[in-house]
From TrEMBL:
Gene3D superfamilies, A to Z: Beta Polymerase, domain 2
Domain RelA/SpoT: 31-167
One Pfam family matching this protein: RelA_SpoT
SUPFAM superfamilies with a match to the protein in the record: Nucleotidyltransferase
Protein name: RelA/SpoT domain-containing protein
Gene Ontology BP terms: guanosine tetraphosphate metabolic process
């Protein structure tokens, strides 16, 4: 059983890593397979809660669980949109923001295994003597969190969600736990705004490399902007102004759609920024042909 599930787990992990690393996103990924004791515990708990699993009804959908933790709040949606094009989303729990209430915001998505993975699962199921295997769905769960909220969610899941009776007569303590989450959510917003403001300060001081780093917040390789690009930016301030105004999320999603095999560095980013958004003729003239070809091919699809 475990070997077959590990094969599926490895495929899912690699697919996600390939897509997110392609654009240099800052994130951490955690993936696990539910063990037999955890499966049995969940079946028993759901039965006690009056929502039992059934072979012809609701099944366990997170035999494999994936959690992606982003450094920044706005990257949660970036990851969701990128992976929506790579996996089949069949259900989701995404909490709407309430203006007057602070509470945990879930971004939990159920994804269908692909045809090859379903076949592997069926082979595992037929060979398994685990009587609960008929209660397991052909799906995995994808959870998206920010770095600041991740620790809170782990504590909440282990020490509140799985033992709600501990909290029934302690509403003030429960309110305080939610208040801690509220402060983390506020800090998530403040962190994004801080880097937005910092990127503008670097634009004003013509610190172009720092502008790109703090505007796009990616895992850049350690190589500096070349002299030609620096000269173009220094000569034409409107290029930097356009960079400041670019919608980061929209650009990253466009970048993810390219058939990229390029290092994530300042030079390549600026070449692609120019081809996709800025469209400065002087920068286009010095752009390597391979980058132009990648962009051109994406336009033809």
């Amino acid at each position: 059983m475990i070997a077959g599930l590990q094969m599926i787990e490895k495929q899912i992990h690699q697919k996600i890593v390939d897509e997110l690393n392609k654009i240099g996103l800052l994130y951490r990924i955690f993936i696990r397979i539910k063990n037999e004791s955890s499966i049995n515990e969940k079946i028993e708990r759901k039965s006690k809660e009056g929502e039992p699993y059934a072979e012809n009804g609701k099944k366990i959908q997170d035999i494999i669980g994936v959690r992606i933790v982003t450094y920044f709040k706005d990257d949660v949606n970036v990851v969701k949109e990128i992976l929506n094009n790579k996996f089949k989303f069949i259900d989701e729990e995404i909490d709407e923001l309430e203006l007057t209430v602070f509470k945990p915001k879930r971004t939990n998505i159920i994804c269908q295994f692909d045809e090859n993975q379903i076949q592997i699962l069926e082979e595992v199921s037929s060979a398994s003597k685990n009587f609960n295997f008929n209660l397991i769905d052909k799906t995995f769960e994808l959870q998206l969190r920010t770095m600041l909220s991740e620790g809170w969610h782990e504590i909440d899941h282990s020490l509140r969600y799985k033992c709600t009776e501990d909290w029934t007569k302690h509403k003030e303590s429960e309110r305080l736990l939610n208040g801690i989450y509220a402060s983390l959510e506020t800090n998530d917003i403040a962190l994004k705004n801080l880097f937005h403001e910092l990127s503008y300060k670097h634009f004003k001081s013509k610190n172009w490399q720092a502008l790109l780093r703090n505007k796009f917040r990616l895992q850049f390789q350690l190589s500096d902007l070349n002299v030609e690009l620096l000269n173009k930016l220094n000569e034409d301030n409107s290029i930097g102004k356009k960079i400041v105004k670019i919608d980061r999320t929209e650009f990253l999603l466009k970048l993810s759609n390219l058939d990229l095999s390029l290092p994530v560095n300042f030079n390549n980013l600026l070449y692609l920024l120019n081809l996709i958004e800025i469209k400065n003729d002087e920068i286009s003239r010095i752009t390597p042909e391979i980058i132009k070809t990648i962009h051109r091919n994406s336009q033809e699809i």
